[in-house]
Design brief:
about 375 residues; 3 strands; mainly alpha; globular; about 5% strand
Length: about 375
């Protein structure tokens, strides 16, 4: 079993490819047979089966409501990284397992092993030694995935103890969050700079991201067919499928729509009316759809062309930062918090409030409640 896990933990191995192609039907039949025999449903599962089942299990009748492929890949990557570290850095992590129980690594682990792994990850892992510490947000994400996985194994009875309690709390404090605040004046400066150097591609990307609040992945997945004529209010809107396959309709202001048309002309693409409905709305220079990681890399490279104009902007300008700019600009314009939440596709108000923490802090500062004639000679 350990040798199989070693194969799975290698990102270049065929076993990893097989992991995402495991027949869920066969695993379901194995689970059903165990239930029929009045045994634990996962009695005949091994570690590889459990990993595949946890990642790919269909929980909803409508598969579209299950985890997105991006989330599945993130979970698989993180758990594989954990397995690889446990098997390859056994001594450094101090994985003092005398005997593998039932040929299962997961069943052989205890709380102390997860705690030691977490400590090693933050202080002595190759990444930290080469590049410096992980951000608090990254540690929080890694911890959340592992905690979710091992709590699941315990809940379904595959392992006997809640070993996830060995993981220390890794919540992100407000002060640990990266600064992603970008106000409307900064966005105007970026747009003017790209207009000045005649860069319609970046001009449109920045304008669309800011004026719609789209997530990076949402913009990359847009098709020509997602641009819809608004028969009620006039103009156009975007039909967007967000996290959890939740749909929302985002109005396109006239100049934002025009920037999309100019973008496609600059890329040598057919007009919207002449394009295939399933064609990507935004494409790379090769005519293919952006991937989220490539869009970030492309924007980072192109932002350097206007570095001199952005010297006083300290925020790293990524797609997500312009999503924050949408929230901030909306609030400054008087938009209701609930409307901003729905427009961004957030499920919880708390998430939206994180975007607007500093705006709220300044709004509620006592100085804003001073009488109009307070220190009127100097204010």
């Amino acid at each position: 079993m350990v040798s199989i896990l070693q194969e799975i933990s290698n990102p270049n191995s065929q076993a990893v490819m097989e992991l995402s192609q495991v027949s869920m039907k066969q695993l379901q039949q194995k689970k059903d047979a165990a239930e029929k025999a009045k045994e634990n449903p996962f009695a005949d599962f091994n570690d590889v089966d459990m990993l595949a089942w946890y990642i790919h299990e269909q929980k909803h009748a409508n598969q579209a409501n299950d985890r997105s492929m991006r989330t599945k890949k993130e979970y698989e990557r993180e758990i594989r990284h954990f397995i690889a570290a446990i098997l390859s850095h056994t001594e450094a992590i101090d994985v003092d397992i005398d005997e593998i129980r039932g040929q299962s690594l997961f069943k052989s682990l205890e709380s102390r092993h997860l705690r030691r792994y977490q400590e090693w990850l933050m202080t002595e892992s190759p990444y930290v030694l080469e590049r410096g510490p992980y951000s608090p947000a990254t540690i929080s994400r890694k911890t959340t995935i592992l905690k979710s996985f091992f709590r699941y194994l315990y809940r379904v009875g595959y392992i006997q103890g809640d070993i996830a309690e060995g993981l220390r709390i890794a919540s992100v404090r407000k002060d640990d969050r990266p600064d992603r605040d970008l106000g409307p004046q900064d966005v105007v400066k970026v747009l003017r700079s790209f207009r000045t150097i005649n860069h319609p591609v970046m001009f449109s990307i920045v304008l669309v991201l800011t004026a719609t609040g789209l997530r990076n992945e949402e913009l990359c997945k847009l098709k020509v067919s997602d641009v819809k004529k608004d028969r009620i209010h006039g103009g156009y809107y975007l039909n967007v499928v967000g996290k959890g396959n939740k749909k929302r309709q985002i109005p396109l202001k006239e100049k934002v729509y025009d920037s999309i048309r100019v973008y496609r002309y600059a890329r040598g693409l057919p007009s919207l009316a002449e394009s295939r409905l399933d064609a990507p709305l935004f494409t790379t220079s090769r005519g293919t759809a952006f991937s989220p990681s490539y869009l970030i890399a492309y924007m980072t490279k192109e932002m350097k062309k206007i570095d001199s104009e952005l010297e006083d902007i300290e925020v790293k300008l990524t797609p997500h930062v312009f999503r924050h700019a949408f929230a901030i600009t909306s609030r400054l314009g008087g938009a209701d918090l609930f409307d901003i939440m729905r427009s961004l596709g957030h499920e919880k108000m708390e998430t939206t409030m994180i975007y607007l923490e500093k705006v709220f802090a300044r709004e509620k500062n006592a100085v804003n409640q001073w009488a109009p004639d307070a220190l009127d000679e100097f204010l």
